[in-house]
Specification:
45% of the residues lie in helices and 17% in strands. The chain is an alpha/beta fold. It has helices spanning 31-43, 60-68, 87-93, 96-105, 107-115, 118-124, 132-146, 166-178, 191-198, 234-245, 248-258, 292-305, 310-330, and strands at 5-8, 13-16, 18-21, 48-50, 76-81, 83-85, 125-127, 151-157, 182-189, 206-210, 226-230, 284-287. The radius of gyration is 20 Å and the shape is globular. Helix 2 links the parallel strand 4 (48-50) and strand 5. Bound molecules: NADP nicotinamide-adenine-dinucleotide phosphate. Residues 21-24, 27, 50, 158, 188-189, 208, 230-234, 266, 270, 286-291, 294, 297-298 line the site of NADP nicotinamide-adenine-dinucleotide phosphate.
Length: 331
Protein backbone atom coordinates (compact mmCIF):
# COMPACT_ATOMS: atom_id res chain seq x y z
CA UNK A 1 0.00 0.00 0.00
CA UNK A 2 1.30 3.44 -0.87
CA UNK A 3 0.33 6.17 1.59
CA UNK A 4 0.32 9.90 0.82
CA UNK A 5 3.61 11.59 1.62
CA UNK A 6 3.89 14.91 3.42
CA UNK A 7 6.74 17.38 3.29
CA UNK A 8 7.45 18.58 6.82
CA UNK A 9 7.88 22.14 5.75
CA UNK A 10 11.34 23.64 6.12
CA UNK A 11 12.90 20.47 7.59
CA UNK A 12 13.80 18.61 4.39
CA UNK A 13 11.91 15.61 5.78
CA UNK A 14 9.35 13.80 3.67
CA UNK A 15 7.38 10.99 5.19
CA UNK A 16 3.95 9.33 5.22
CA UNK A 17 0.98 11.30 6.55
CA UNK A 18 0.33 8.40 8.90
CA UNK A 19 2.85 7.70 11.67
CA UNK A 20 2.97 4.74 14.04
CA UNK A 21 3.30 5.34 17.79
CA UNK A 22 5.60 3.07 19.77
CA UNK A 23 4.12 3.99 23.17
CA UNK A 24 0.81 2.24 22.43
CA UNK A 25 2.78 -0.72 21.09
CA UNK A 26 3.74 -1.66 24.63
CA UNK A 27 0.18 -2.60 25.47
CA UNK A 28 1.07 -5.75 23.54
CA UNK A 29 2.72 -7.98 26.11
CA UNK A 30 5.29 -9.87 24.01
CA UNK A 31 8.34 -8.52 22.21
CA UNK A 32 7.59 -10.92 19.32
CA UNK A 33 4.06 -9.56 19.02
CA UNK A 34 5.36 -5.98 19.08
CA UNK A 35 7.87 -6.76 16.35
CA UNK A 36 5.08 -8.28 14.29
CA UNK A 37 2.99 -5.10 14.73
CA UNK A 38 5.91 -3.00 13.50
CA UNK A 39 6.09 -5.24 10.42
CA UNK A 40 2.32 -4.94 9.90
CA UNK A 41 2.64 -1.13 10.06
CA UNK A 42 5.49 -1.20 7.56
CA UNK A 43 3.61 -3.55 5.22
CA UNK A 44 0.60 -1.20 5.49
CA UNK A 45 2.81 1.54 4.03
CA UNK A 46 3.60 3.46 7.22
CA UNK A 47 7.08 4.98 7.13
CA UNK A 48 7.11 7.23 10.17
CA UNK A 49 7.72 5.86 13.68
CA UNK A 50 7.43 7.82 16.92
CA UNK A 51 9.41 6.72 19.96
CA UNK A 52 10.85 8.10 23.22
CA UNK A 53 13.29 6.96 25.91
CA UNK A 54 10.36 6.55 28.34
CA UNK A 55 8.27 4.29 26.08
CA UNK A 56 8.10 0.69 27.19
CA UNK A 57 10.04 1.82 30.28
CA UNK A 58 13.15 2.14 28.15
CA UNK A 59 12.65 -0.85 25.88
CA UNK A 60 10.83 0.73 22.94
CA UNK A 61 13.94 2.30 21.43
CA UNK A 62 15.90 -0.95 21.30
CA UNK A 63 12.93 -2.90 19.89
CA UNK A 64 12.31 -0.25 17.24
CA UNK A 65 16.07 -0.24 16.57
CA UNK A 66 16.00 -3.97 15.87
CA UNK A 67 13.12 -3.45 13.46
CA UNK A 68 14.49 -0.45 11.53
CA UNK A 69 17.93 -1.99 11.01
CA UNK A 70 16.88 -3.37 7.65
CA UNK A 71 14.70 -0.36 6.71
CA UNK A 72 16.69 2.61 7.99
CA UNK A 73 16.87 4.60 4.77
CA UNK A 74 13.15 4.08 4.03
CA UNK A 75 11.71 5.21 7.35
CA UNK A 76 11.74 8.35 9.48
CA UNK A 77 12.12 8.17 13.25
CA UNK A 78 11.05 10.85 15.72
CA UNK A 79 12.64 10.52 19.14
CA UNK A 80 12.47 12.72 22.23
CA UNK A 81 14.31 13.76 25.36
CA UNK A 82 13.21 15.09 28.76
CA UNK A 83 11.33 12.11 30.25
CA UNK A 84 13.13 8.89 31.07
CA UNK A 85 12.44 5.79 33.14
CA UNK A 86 13.80 5.79 36.69
CA UNK A 87 16.08 2.90 37.76
CA UNK A 88 12.97 1.36 39.38
CA UNK A 89 11.12 1.81 36.09
CA UNK A 90 13.89 0.05 34.15
CA UNK A 91 13.71 -2.90 36.58
CA UNK A 92 9.94 -2.99 36.22
CA UNK A 93 10.39 -3.20 32.45
CA UNK A 94 11.57 -6.79 32.90
CA UNK A 95 8.35 -7.88 34.60
CA UNK A 96 6.08 -5.93 32.24
CA UNK A 97 5.20 -9.02 30.26
CA UNK A 98 3.45 -11.04 33.01
CA UNK A 99 1.90 -7.88 34.48
CA UNK A 100 0.49 -6.82 31.11
CA UNK A 101 -0.82 -10.34 30.51
CA UNK A 102 -2.72 -10.22 33.79
CA UNK A 103 -4.08 -6.73 33.05
CA UNK A 104 -5.19 -7.87 29.61
CA UNK A 105 -6.94 -10.96 30.92
CA UNK A 106 -8.65 -8.97 33.72
CA UNK A 107 -9.90 -5.72 32.16
CA UNK A 108 -11.50 -4.55 35.42
CA UNK A 109 -8.13 -4.75 37.23
CA UNK A 110 -6.45 -2.99 34.27
CA UNK A 111 -8.99 -0.16 34.43
CA UNK A 112 -8.36 0.26 38.18
CA UNK A 113 -4.59 0.37 37.63
CA UNK A 114 -4.95 2.96 34.84
CA UNK A 115 -7.29 5.05 37.00
CA UNK A 116 -4.63 5.20 39.72
CA UNK A 117 -1.62 5.36 37.44
CA UNK A 118 -0.55 8.94 38.28
CA UNK A 119 1.19 8.00 41.52
CA UNK A 120 3.04 4.89 40.22
CA UNK A 121 4.11 6.82 37.12
CA UNK A 122 6.11 9.15 39.38
CA UNK A 123 8.04 6.09 40.57
CA UNK A 124 8.58 4.82 37.05
CA UNK A 125 9.52 8.03 35.18
CA UNK A 126 11.48 11.19 35.85
CA UNK A 127 11.08 14.41 33.98
CA UNK A 128 13.56 17.23 33.35
CA UNK A 129 16.93 17.84 31.77
CA UNK A 130 15.90 20.38 29.15
CA UNK A 131 19.49 21.59 28.95
CA UNK A 132 22.34 20.88 26.57
CA UNK A 133 24.26 18.40 28.76
CA UNK A 134 21.26 16.20 29.48
CA UNK A 135 19.94 16.49 25.92
CA UNK A 136 23.35 15.40 24.57
CA UNK A 137 23.52 12.41 26.94
CA UNK A 138 19.98 11.38 26.09
CA UNK A 139 20.61 11.60 22.34
CA UNK A 140 23.81 9.51 22.55
CA UNK A 141 22.00 6.80 24.56
CA UNK A 142 19.03 6.86 22.19
CA UNK A 143 21.21 6.45 19.09
CA UNK A 144 22.94 3.49 20.73
CA UNK A 145 19.64 1.82 21.65
CA UNK A 146 18.16 2.52 18.22
CA UNK A 147 21.38 1.24 16.56
CA UNK A 148 21.41 4.14 14.16
CA UNK A 149 23.69 7.10 13.40
CA UNK A 150 20.89 9.67 13.34
CA UNK A 151 17.27 10.34 14.13
CA UNK A 152 15.12 12.31 11.75
CA UNK A 153 13.50 14.36 14.51
CA UNK A 154 14.49 15.06 18.09
CA UNK A 155 11.68 16.55 20.17
CA UNK A 156 11.63 18.10 23.63
CA UNK A 157 9.22 15.75 25.41
CA UNK A 158 6.40 17.52 27.29
CA UNK A 159 8.62 20.38 28.48
CA UNK A 160 7.51 22.19 31.60
CA UNK A 161 7.16 25.86 30.58
CA UNK A 162 9.95 27.82 32.25
CA UNK A 163 12.21 24.76 32.67
CA UNK A 164 13.79 24.91 29.22
CA UNK A 165 17.21 26.48 28.80
CA UNK A 166 16.25 27.56 25.33
CA UNK A 167 19.45 29.34 24.23
CA UNK A 168 21.71 26.39 25.03
CA UNK A 169 19.18 23.81 23.82
CA UNK A 170 18.84 25.69 20.55
CA UNK A 171 22.64 25.76 20.11
CA UNK A 172 22.87 22.04 20.98
CA UNK A 173 20.11 21.05 18.55
CA UNK A 174 21.53 23.12 15.70
CA UNK A 175 25.02 21.64 16.35
CA UNK A 176 23.52 18.13 16.37
CA UNK A 177 21.83 18.95 13.08
CA UNK A 178 25.07 20.20 11.51
CA UNK A 179 26.85 17.07 12.76
CA UNK A 180 24.20 14.87 11.08
CA UNK A 181 22.97 13.35 14.35
CA UNK A 182 19.47 14.74 13.80
CA UNK A 183 17.78 16.03 10.68
CA UNK A 184 15.47 18.45 12.48
CA UNK A 185 13.97 19.10 15.90
CA UNK A 186 10.86 20.33 17.67
CA UNK A 187 8.65 20.25 20.75
CA UNK A 188 6.03 17.61 21.65
CA UNK A 189 3.14 17.75 24.10
CA UNK A 190 -0.19 19.40 24.85
CA UNK A 191 -0.80 22.41 22.55
CA UNK A 192 -0.77 25.04 25.32
CA UNK A 193 2.47 23.80 26.96
CA UNK A 194 4.13 23.23 23.59
CA UNK A 195 3.26 26.71 22.44
CA UNK A 196 4.44 28.22 25.74
CA UNK A 197 7.79 26.42 25.44
CA UNK A 198 8.05 27.37 21.77
CA UNK A 199 7.76 31.06 22.61
CA UNK A 200 11.20 30.96 24.21
CA UNK A 201 12.75 29.98 20.84
CA UNK A 202 12.97 32.26 17.83
CA UNK A 203 11.80 29.39 15.62
CA UNK A 204 10.70 25.79 16.23
CA UNK A 205 10.80 23.68 13.04
CA UNK A 206 8.29 21.02 14.21
CA UNK A 207 5.51 21.01 16.79
CA UNK A 208 3.95 17.68 17.76
CA UNK A 209 0.70 18.26 19.62
CA UNK A 210 -2.35 16.45 20.91
CA UNK A 211 -5.40 17.29 18.83
CA UNK A 212 -8.80 15.81 18.22
CA UNK A 213 -12.33 16.78 17.52
CA UNK A 214 -12.98 17.91 21.11
CA UNK A 215 -9.58 19.47 21.77
CA UNK A 216 -8.72 23.12 21.43
CA UNK A 217 -7.93 24.46 17.98
CA UNK A 218 -4.50 24.11 16.43
CA UNK A 219 -4.75 27.58 14.96
CA UNK A 220 -2.43 28.88 17.69
CA UNK A 221 0.46 26.81 16.30
CA UNK A 222 2.46 29.21 14.11
CA UNK A 223 2.29 28.57 10.37
CA UNK A 224 6.10 28.39 10.20
CA UNK A 225 6.22 25.12 12.18
CA UNK A 226 5.57 21.75 10.57
CA UNK A 227 2.87 19.85 12.42
CA UNK A 228 2.50 16.33 13.82
CA UNK A 229 -0.61 15.38 15.76
CA UNK A 230 -1.44 12.58 18.19
CA UNK A 231 -4.38 11.65 20.43
CA UNK A 232 -6.73 11.57 17.46
CA UNK A 233 -8.54 8.32 18.28
CA UNK A 234 -8.54 7.17 21.87
CA UNK A 235 -9.87 10.06 23.91
CA UNK A 236 -12.65 11.22 21.52
CA UNK A 237 -13.63 7.61 20.95
CA UNK A 238 -14.01 6.96 24.68
CA UNK A 239 -16.17 10.07 24.98
CA UNK A 240 -18.35 9.15 22.02
CA UNK A 241 -18.80 5.55 23.15
CA UNK A 242 -19.77 6.70 26.64
CA UNK A 243 -22.24 9.16 25.13
CA UNK A 244 -23.82 6.65 22.75
CA UNK A 245 -24.13 4.01 25.46
CA UNK A 246 -25.76 6.39 27.91
CA UNK A 247 -29.33 5.78 26.84
CA UNK A 248 -31.51 3.83 24.47
CA UNK A 249 -32.86 7.12 23.08
CA UNK A 250 -29.37 8.28 22.05
CA UNK A 251 -28.56 4.88 20.54
CA UNK A 252 -31.78 5.06 18.56
CA UNK A 253 -30.89 8.56 17.33
CA UNK A 254 -27.44 7.45 16.15
CA UNK A 255 -28.91 4.38 14.53
CA UNK A 256 -31.50 6.43 12.66
CA UNK A 257 -28.96 9.02 11.55
CA UNK A 258 -26.15 6.77 10.41
CA UNK A 259 -27.25 3.17 10.32
CA UNK A 260 -26.14 0.23 12.44
CA UNK A 261 -22.37 0.57 12.00
CA UNK A 262 -22.15 3.96 13.64
CA UNK A 263 -23.87 2.71 16.77
CA UNK A 264 -20.43 1.31 17.49
CA UNK A 265 -18.46 4.37 16.38
CA UNK A 266 -15.13 2.65 16.87
CA UNK A 267 -15.64 0.79 13.60
CA UNK A 268 -16.05 3.97 11.71
CA UNK A 269 -13.79 6.78 10.50
CA UNK A 270 -11.38 7.12 13.40
CA UNK A 271 -9.45 9.79 11.54
CA UNK A 272 -12.50 11.90 10.87
CA UNK A 273 -11.94 13.04 14.46
CA UNK A 274 -9.00 15.01 13.13
CA UNK A 275 -10.84 16.57 10.22
CA UNK A 276 -11.92 19.92 11.65
CA UNK A 277 -8.32 21.01 11.48
CA UNK A 278 -7.70 22.27 7.99
CA UNK A 279 -3.98 21.61 8.15
CA UNK A 280 -4.56 17.89 8.51
CA UNK A 281 -3.56 17.11 4.94
CA UNK A 282 -0.28 18.91 5.58
CA UNK A 283 0.78 17.11 8.70
CA UNK A 284 1.66 13.68 10.05
CA UNK A 285 -1.10 12.04 12.09
CA UNK A 286 0.29 9.62 14.68
CA UNK A 287 -1.80 6.77 15.94
CA UNK A 288 -1.30 3.67 18.01
CA UNK A 289 -2.71 0.17 17.67
CA UNK A 290 -2.11 -3.30 19.01
CA UNK A 291 -4.54 -5.02 16.64
CA UNK A 292 -3.43 -5.55 13.05
CA UNK A 293 -6.93 -4.84 11.63
CA UNK A 294 -6.76 -1.39 13.25
CA UNK A 295 -3.46 -0.74 11.47
CA UNK A 296 -4.96 -1.87 8.17
CA UNK A 297 -8.04 0.33 8.72
CA UNK A 298 -5.96 3.41 9.58
CA UNK A 299 -3.77 2.89 6.58
CA UNK A 300 -6.73 2.42 4.23
CA UNK A 301 -8.32 5.61 5.55
CA UNK A 302 -5.05 7.54 5.22
CA UNK A 303 -4.61 6.29 1.68
CA UNK A 304 -8.01 7.64 0.67
CA UNK A 305 -7.97 10.74 2.85
CA UNK A 306 -6.40 13.01 0.25
CA UNK A 307 -8.90 12.05 -2.41
CA UNK A 308 -12.13 10.74 -0.88
CA UNK A 309 -14.91 9.83 -3.27
CA UNK A 310 -18.02 12.02 -3.22
CA UNK A 311 -19.87 9.27 -1.33
CA UNK A 312 -17.10 8.94 1.28
CA UNK A 313 -16.93 12.70 1.72
CA UNK A 314 -20.67 12.94 2.22
CA UNK A 315 -20.56 9.98 4.63
CA UNK A 316 -17.80 11.67 6.65
CA UNK A 317 -19.59 15.00 6.62
CA UNK A 318 -22.79 13.49 7.98
CA UNK A 319 -20.86 11.58 10.65
CA UNK A 320 -19.11 14.77 11.78
CA UNK A 321 -22.38 16.73 11.72
CA UNK A 322 -23.89 14.06 13.92
CA UNK A 323 -20.97 14.23 16.38
CA UNK A 324 -21.16 18.01 16.49
CA UNK A 325 -24.95 18.09 16.88
CA UNK A 326 -24.91 15.43 19.61
CA UNK A 327 -22.17 17.12 21.63
CA UNK A 328 -23.51 20.63 21.36
CA UNK A 329 -26.78 19.13 22.63
CA UNK A 330 -24.91 17.36 25.45
CA UNK A 331 -22.92 20.43 26.59
N1 LIG B 1 3.95 13.97 23.95
C1 LIG B 1 3.92 13.24 22.84
O1 LIG B 1 4.62 13.50 21.88
C2 LIG B 1 2.99 12.06 22.75
C3 LIG B 1 2.00 11.87 23.71
C4 LIG B 1 1.14 10.78 23.56
C5 LIG B 1 1.29 9.91 22.49
N2 LIG B 1 2.29 10.12 21.58
C6 LIG B 1 2.51 9.19 20.47
O2 LIG B 1 1.29 8.99 19.78
C7 LIG B 1 1.04 7.58 19.67
C8 LIG B 1 -0.44 7.32 19.65
O3 LIG B 1 -0.97 7.62 20.93
P1 LIG B 1 -2.39 8.30 21.05
O4 LIG B 1 -2.57 8.76 22.43
O5 LIG B 1 -2.49 9.27 19.92
O6 LIG B 1 -3.34 7.08 20.79
P2 LIG B 1 -4.53 6.97 19.71
O7 LIG B 1 -3.93 6.64 18.39
O8 LIG B 1 -5.43 8.16 19.83
O9 LIG B 1 -5.31 5.73 20.27
C9 LIG B 1 -4.73 4.45 20.32
C10 LIG B 1 -5.87 3.47 20.50
O10 LIG B 1 -6.74 3.59 19.38
C11 LIG B 1 -7.19 2.31 19.05
N3 LIG B 1 -7.46 2.25 17.61
C12 LIG B 1 -6.58 2.38 16.59
N4 LIG B 1 -7.21 2.26 15.41
C13 LIG B 1 -8.53 2.05 15.70
C14 LIG B 1 -9.70 1.83 14.92
N5 LIG B 1 -9.65 1.79 13.58
N6 LIG B 1 -10.87 1.65 15.57
C15 LIG B 1 -10.92 1.67 16.90
N7 LIG B 1 -9.85 1.86 17.70
C16 LIG B 1 -8.68 2.05 17.10
C17 LIG B 1 -6.08 1.35 19.41
O11 LIG B 1 -6.67 0.12 19.82
P3 LIG B 1 -5.88 -1.28 19.77
O12 LIG B 1 -4.68 -1.14 20.67
O13 LIG B 1 -6.89 -2.22 20.28
O14 LIG B 1 -5.47 -1.57 18.34
C18 LIG B 1 -5.38 2.04 20.57
O15 LIG B 1 -5.80 1.54 21.80
C19 LIG B 1 1.76 6.97 20.87
O16 LIG B 1 2.03 5.60 20.67
C20 LIG B 1 2.99 7.84 20.94
O17 LIG B 1 3.96 7.36 20.04
C21 LIG B 1 3.12 11.19 21.69
Amino acid sequence: MSLPVVDLDGTGIKTTTLGFGCATLFRAPDAAERLRLLHVAYEAGIRHFDVAPMYGLGRAESELGRFIRSHRSEVTVANKFGIRPTPAGRCFAYVQRPVRRILRSKPAVGAQVRAHSAAPSRLLYEKGGYDAVNAGRSLRQSLRRLRTDYVDLLLLHDPIPGSVRSAEIYAFLEDARSAGLIRSWGIAGAPEATLAAALSFSHVPVQQVRSHVFASSLSSIPEGSALITFGVISSPLARIIQHVRASAAIRERWYTATGPIAVIPKLRHPFSFARPFNRIALCVVLFGATRPPHIGAASAIAERSCRPSAAEQSDLDSFMSLVQAEFSRAS
